[in-house]
Amino acid sequence: MKKNKIVVAYSGGLDTSVMVKWLKDNYDAEIITFTGNLGQTKELVGLEEKAINSGASKVYIEDLTKEFLEEYAFPALRAGAMYEEAYPMACSLGRPLLAKTLVEIARKEGANMVAHGCTGKGNDQVRFEVSVGALAPDLKNLAPLRTWEFKSREEEIEYCRKHNIPVTASKENPYSIDDNIWGTAIECGVLEDPMVEPPADAYLHTVAPENAPDKFEEVSILFEKGNPVAVNGKYFDSVSLVMLVNEIGGRHGIGRIDLIENRLVGIKSREVYETPGASILHFAHKELERLTLEKSVAHYKNLVAQEYSNLIYNGLWFSPLREALQAFIDKTQERVTGIVKLKLYKGTIRITGRSSAYSLYDPALATYTAEDQFDHAASEGFIKIYGLGLKTYSRVEERVAAENKKLRLANGTLG
Ligand code: ARG
Q1: pLDDT for 178
Q2: Is the pLDDT assigned to residue 171 strictly greater than 70?
Q3: Looking at ligand 1, which atom is closest to the CA of residue 273?
Q4: Residue ranges of domains in the chain, CATH in brackets
Q5: Active-site amino acid positions
Q6: Mean pLDDT of 381-392
Q7: Which of 93, 213, 230, 250 is deepest in the core (most CB within 10 A)?
Q8: What pairing do the DSSP bridges indicate for beta strands 256-262 and 268-274?
Q9: Which residues line ligand 1 at a C-beta cut-off of 6 Å?
Q10: What is the side-by-side strand order in the sheet with 29-37?
């Protein structure tokens, strides 16, 4: 009987393969691996065998793509959540779901610990551990990469050789990639120089805008209560819809993001993202809100989106504040139903039309034609009272200036 039972968040890469054996020995533990499929492109075949050969006694591989979109990515889409106004947080949104599933498996298996393969200088360690802590305060979090003895990839490979852990002898990818259906994050290698343009081989899902077709493509997105439900007049389930929009955006070079970003741990890092689908859906959703949200709600919601984005980026998905803000956001989405027409062309998205049964655009008020119903005469009184405060302020300024001038004349300080 082993002393501990650990559920490991396992990707099948070098770090997590080493981790399985290392934890097994160092913690006298039975190891169960868990791999979540969030719609990443990387094949998951052969993963079970690999985990077993690395020392795991049981393997979980779960397709979480639908849950990821409907319970994490779409709520953030409804919020209009972009970290630092630019990043739709594909990676940040995946972590809480992986942590939640890790906890569920730990409970089912009666494990006393969970482990992840994040480094000690990123955001992901925080997201994992804070989420696990929020859902299962008694479970112990382990982060071997922060403490173990290995200083390089070579040392890890040597360890694998010694312990007969299978390492796929693939040519090392120069980048560190985190990929899911909502977007891809690409780091390391030459990308660490913020002055260097990301080379073509850094991108997985998009063509360079300059190599995109010379002809635009029209696409329409239908939303119901802030969620995308149909593309070009055809309804899709969430996973098929996002895959389709990713594909359409990818061929027009949409959603390449090159961002100097502030990590939670105090580091400024250069991040390259590809989010063709998320970029198009965020754009279209925003345009539909412009049509359907009452002005003060729209303005206030932008403030909420910023706070909400920071919460997600900083690992606080499972916080009462995120949930309360979500309730506000979802209330605002009750009327965000309608269609948006776009043109995609060489990396750009342009709106060409929008319509909604809840449209607040009133032609009788907006028109400059004879159909105009707006009460022009009422504007006079409105402006009088609206500007009254400024007039009062200005009169006082003038009076004080005149009095000061008189005083200085009397004192002879003004020639
Ligand atoms: N900076 C991004 C975030 O914190 C992405 C991190 C992705 N990790 C990676 N291995 N490339 O959400």
Answers
A1: 93
A2: no
A3: 5
A4: 4-64+88-162 (3.40.50.620), 176-293+336-359 (3.90.1260.10), 362-405 (1.20.5)
A5: 15, 95, 124, 176
A6: 98
A7: 93
A8: antiparallel
A9: 91-92, 123, 176-178, 185, 187, 261, 271
A10: 58-63, 29-37, 4-9, 113-115, 140-142
